[in-house]
Amino acid sequence: MKTLTGKVISNKMENTVTVLVENMWQHPVYQKSIKRSKKFLAHTDKKITEGKFVVIAETRPISKRKNWKVLEVIKK
Fold it and tell me: Which of 36, 54, 56, 71 is the most buried (most CB within 10 A)?
């Protein structure tokens, strides 16, 4: 099961939060650290406020763009 950690940036939808996952990687030639980010829609039954960090896991397709669910809230 694939899991990612990210920050909740939107909770305006019903039973869904938008999670921003940021990754740092180093360019193979120039050795510069680069930050990449991607947004995921995750299913949740709890009301999670914006700014909290969560762990999300990959699941079966729940809707057209929602293939992740929230496992736990890490911290504020």
Answer: 56
- Half-sphere exposure (Cβ direction) of 36: Cα atoms closer than 13 Å: 7
- What domains are defined for the chain? 3-75 (2.40.50.140)
At 11, list the tokens: 């909770």
> Looking at the predicted structure, is the pLDDT value of residue 63 above 80?
yes
Whether the CB-CB separation of 41 and 70 falls below 8 Å is answered with no
**Residue 75 confidence (pLDDT):** 76
**How many C-beta neighbours within 10 Å does residue 4 have?**
16
What are the two backbone dihedrals, phi and then psi, of residue 8, each rounded to the nearest 5 degrees?
-75, 120
Neighbours of 31 (CB within 10 A): 7
